[in-house]
Amino acid sequence: xxxxxxxxxxxxxxxxxxxxxxxxxxxxxxxxxxxxxxxxxxxxxxxxxxxxxxxxxxxxxxxxxxxxxxxxxxxxxxxxxxxxxxxxxxxxxxxxxxxxxxxxxxxxxxxxxxxxxxxxxxxxxxxxxxxxxxxxxxxxxxxxxxxxxxxxxxxxxxxxxxxxxxxxxxxxxxxxxxxxxxxxxxxxxxxxxxxxxxxxxxxxxxxxxxxxxxxxxxxxxxxxxxxxxxxxxxxxxxxxxxxxxxxxxxxxxxxxxxxxxxxxxxxxxxxxxxxxxxxx
Length: 280
What we know:
Strand content: over 45%
Helix content: 10-25%
Strand order of the largest sheet: 6-5-4-3-2-1-18-15-14-13-10-9-8
Shape: globular
Structural class: mainly beta
Order of helices and strands: HEEEEEEEEEEHHEEEEEEEE
């Protein structure tokens, strides 16, 4: 049951804190038109796993200047968890207070990550959405011949598909200061130190409809299909997420020294409903 709840919080958080492409990008498919400005106000989630079902929700509060100031989560037991968002100079996102703890965010502005060194490569579709991502991971693998664990580097391939609707959380994330922070984070994608891109340029401009992750042999690791129901202003009123973990593959766990075969697929369903605060 704990694992199910973790999946639920992950899906809810993904919809709240996923991001979009660069604000300066002139690709209009990646931004909700100003005439249709709306801010996410509430997300209700129903998670279904066979006969098991659980509900969660998140409420977003804004100040008079439409800056996001608080996010409150509620689970099916009625337990609440909230985070208050603080801003510093020039309205820059500075910290989040959550359950008595303060998480400082100022240190993330202007930092650099070397993704080239980590073996990450990116391909984009015609709308400038990242459509193929290759990740390298270091792990241990059991060698049947030597009967020993060996260090290995393997690749995971993520394929991402989108619809043509503009990313519906754009104005919500702009109101929270997250987009401004992402625009300040630089990523090195090649061996040339000056060849930098911003974090925003790795993130989608449209709404994701499918993510499929496979290993080097083409075996399914996990996938998620997302179906939206849109209103007249191109904002989704609801979304259905079908998450599947792949079967027919070996799953190596060096931490527990286990080699086991995943014999069948495992799936869960998430149904989300959205409410918005529309700009007057």
